[in-house]
Amino acid sequence: xxxxxxxxxxxxxxxxxxxxxxxxxxxxxxxxxxxxxxxxxxxxxxxxxxxxxxxxxxxxxxxxxxxxxxxxxxxxxxxxxxxxxxxxxxxxxxxxxxxxxxxxxxxxxxxxxxxxxxxxxxxxxxxxxxxxxxxxxxxxxxxxxxxxxxxxxxxxxxxxxxxxxxxxxxxxxxxxxxxxxxxxxxxxxxxxxxxxxxxxxxxxxxxxxxxxxxxxxxxxxx
Length: 222
Hints:
Membrane topology: Multi-pass membrane protein
Domain TonB-dependent receptor plug: 51-147
Radius of gyration: 34 Å
GO molecular function: siderophore uptake transmembrane transporter activity
Distance between the termini: 121 Å
Low-confidence stretches: 1-9, 41-45
CATH architecture of the largest domain: Beta Complex
CATH class of the largest domain: Mainly Beta
CATH topology of the largest domain: Ferric Hydroxamate Uptake Protein, Chain A, domain 1
Strand content: 25-35%
Largest sheet: 5 strands, mixed
GO biological process, one term: siderophore transmembrane transport
Number of domains: 2
Structural class: alpha+beta
Number of helices: 4
Number of strands: 12
Strand order of the largest sheet: 1-6-7-4-5
Order of helices and strands: HEHHEEEEEEHEEEEE
GO cellular component, one term: cell outer membrane
């Protein structure tokens, strides 16, 4: 009888020790430490595949056409040929007109073979170019599976200096490779709450010469 009592006592002591150990272990695991750092500026997330070419970058580049401006963006290439009439915009493998949405001041530009008219747009009148690569531009809708190109033109306020109400700009350009001559005249001003801007451009391109100096026949345009 004495032996039995001692056994029960020892067993109860062991059970109490186990529960006490589990209780201490559980209380240690429930301790959570949180560390936070304060930031001085807000964190923003840009849209994927979006690039913006500013007015300053365009003026510094002195591009001959829209194609040369777009060709500076990673993921965009100009293929189809060296002539402006045969060039195509290619965004990550998409180059068909129905796969790329093109806008000028918010107005969609469609029904162009190889974007022929877009490449003759006067680059000096471009204020900024926004390009979205891929189908990330929800405002495009149909026709923008490959991406979208949004061109914003300059207005009179962009060209007038402080205190001016009228101005005229005359520009001329020449390329020796294809004897490209480009002339443009722009008149702009404001009166009261009205602004106006009139631009005219003419181009005359001769036959191109390849790397060996040979003339490429019928490559000129006017």
